UniProtKB/TrEMBL annotation:
<dbReference type="InterPro" id="IPR027271">
    <property type="entry name" value="Acetolactate_synth/TF_NikR_C"/>
</dbReference>
<keyword id="KW-0479">Metal-binding</keyword>
<keyword id="KW-0805">Transcription regulation</keyword>
<feature type="binding site">
    <location>
        <position position="76"/>
    </location>
    <ligand>
        <name>Ni(2+)</name>
    </ligand>
</feature>
<dbReference type="InterPro" id="IPR010985">
    <property type="entry name" value="Ribbon_hlx_hlx"/>
</dbReference>
<comment type="similarity">
    <text>Belongs to the transcriptional regulatory CopG/NikR family.</text>
</comment>
<dbReference type="InterPro" id="IPR013321">
    <property type="entry name" value="Arc_rbn_hlx_hlx"/>
</dbReference>
<dbReference type="InterPro" id="IPR002145">
    <property type="entry name" value="CopG"/>
</dbReference>
<dbReference type="InterPro" id="IPR045865">
    <property type="entry name" value="ACT-like_dom_sf"/>
</dbReference>
<comment type="function">
    <text>Transcriptional regulator.</text>
</comment>
<feature type="binding site">
    <location>
        <position position="95"/>
    </location>
    <ligand>
        <name>Ni(2+)</name>
    </ligand>
</feature>
<feature type="domain" description="Ribbon-helix-helix protein CopG">
    <location>
        <begin position="2"/>
        <end position="42"/>
    </location>
</feature>
<keyword id="KW-0804">Transcription</keyword>
<dbReference type="Pfam" id="PF01402">
    <property type="entry name" value="RHH_1"/>
</dbReference>
<dbReference type="Pfam" id="PF08753">
    <property type="entry name" value="NikR_C"/>
</dbReference>
<keyword id="KW-0533">Nickel</keyword>
<feature type="binding site">
    <location>
        <position position="89"/>
    </location>
    <ligand>
        <name>Ni(2+)</name>
    </ligand>
</feature>
Length: 147
């Protein structure tokens, strides 16, 4: 291992200490290493070219002008990436949506960015799962018209 010195502002350090206490790390170094590993594995997935599935969650204010239509429009524009969406009416103003997506990781990240940067959208989170085909196999042949 190598020892490095980093400069970090107090608020961010308080966040690191919070993570450390909640997750039971014994040192800041250990906590920071794991946080970097998390970020690195997300970056790794983004650099892969294979097929991925993803879960995109976000909360939005359905009273924000035309936001619901804009979000639906984005998913229709990318219907090739969009598998299904679940909508939950959280309260009088807010809706929670979970969209299941499928496609190349960079395209999924881009769609997620488009959704999460809309004004009125909060708590957006994207979880990408690589689904490389382990092997190929033949499915049952189609029904033959010959008898
Ligand atoms: Ni709703």
């Amino acid at each position: 291992m190598e020892r490095i010195t980093i400069t970090i502002d107090e608020d961010l350090l308080a966040t690191v200490d919070g993570v450390m206490n909640r997750r039971g790390y014994t040192s800041r170094s250990e906590a920071i290493r794991d946080l970097i590993r998390d970020a690195a594995s997300r970056e790794d997935i983004l650099s892969q070219s294979g097929e991925c599935v993803a879960v995109l969650d976000y909360v939005y204010d359905h009273e924000t002008r035309a936001l619901a239509q804009r979000l639906t429009h984005e998913l229709h524009t990318h219907h090739d990436l969009s598998v299904a969406t679940m909508h939950v009416h959280l309260d009088h103003e807010r809706c929670l949506e979970t969209a299941i997506l499928r496609g190349p990781a960079p395209a999924l990240q881009k769609l997620s960015d488009t959704v999460s940067t809309q004004r009125g959208v909060s708590h957006a989170s994207l979880h990408i799962i690589p689904v490389e085909k382990a092997h190929t196999h033949a499915h049952a042949p189609e029904h033959s018209t010959e008898s």
